[in-house]
Amino acid sequence: MTKNEIDDLKQFITATVTQTVSKSDTRLETKIDRRFEALETKIDEGFAGVADAIDRINNQLDSHETRITGLEKVAQT
Fold it and tell me: In which element (H, E) is residue 4 found?
């Protein structure tokens, strides 16, 4: 092989490897993006569940406070 042929072969190999790595990077990035989106959805659902639980607890506390206030009024009379 001549020096020019070897240089051409090196250039071809470099271009092929670069394209392959680029495609792999793109596929990996797509997979990572999908995983992050799924994780964000799960986190949002989790926070929504926590918010619902806090609302229920607040409602129960309000109900208890109302009942206690009523009992205090009865006890004072």
Answer: helix 3-76
